[in-house]
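[Meeting: bench + compute handoff]

Bench side (C.D.) handed over the final construct sequence. Compute side (W.E.) agreed to return the predicted structure before the next meeting so the bench team could plan truncations. Sequence as handed over:
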Amino acid sequence: MLVLLFLVAFTLCSTMSFAHSHYNWSPSSTTTEWRPARATYYAAADPRDVVGGACGYGDLERNGYGKSTAGLSTVLFDRGQICGACFQVRCVEDLRWCIPGTSIIVTATNFCAPNYGFEPDGGGHCNPPNAHFVLPIEAFEKIAIWKASNMPIQYRRIKCRKEGGVRFTLDGAGIFLSVLISNVAGAGDIVAAKIKGSRTGWLSMGRNWGQNWHINADLKNQPLSFEITSSDGVTLTSYNVAPKNWNFGQTFQGKQFET
């Protein structure tokens, strides 16, 4: 039941407003300083439990994220802006449960909704002002014994390393086009996106939710190019990513940010 509550709670973020995250990320950063937080875990009772999430990445296994993922609490999630960012996480302070000398790298793919029926220092693990990570048990057990449950950890933001190029998954209907941007290296999170057809100039896209971006424009029967900007201010342009005969439901691969 706890697993199901986590999974349901994660999907509620798109209708809420959240505080900004409390770390700084600049164009020159490769890592940020270590900060304190806590972590719990979930164990997927069904293979379908790895599908979905507040960032919109869908099937995490099929899309290359695997079990190296995290749901973040309100103060870290930043209204979905943080989706795609990478963090190094290590267990601290509790010598009974920590696995010494270990750390994991996870990508932000989900949201842990607050539960205001409990105090932040009680059952409301993800309530403000808590910095909290919810990890798949497979990731949690790399840094701590599972019996530890709610563990003190340290985390820091790092640059993401991904195989292959940035992926653009097209969805929508008619003139409504939704694009999921995934597998992003470097800063990992996208703050602006533009699209260009062969018969248009560059058109700004709006953030729909997570890393899903949308636009209302007639772009059928045109090859598509993308210009995306990450949170560290770096812009990447990929020309003719999708061919003229692209269709909804297809995924195409563009260039990749340097790491």
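W.E. noted at the follow-up: DSSP finds three helices and 14 strands in the chain. C.D. will use this when planning the next construct.
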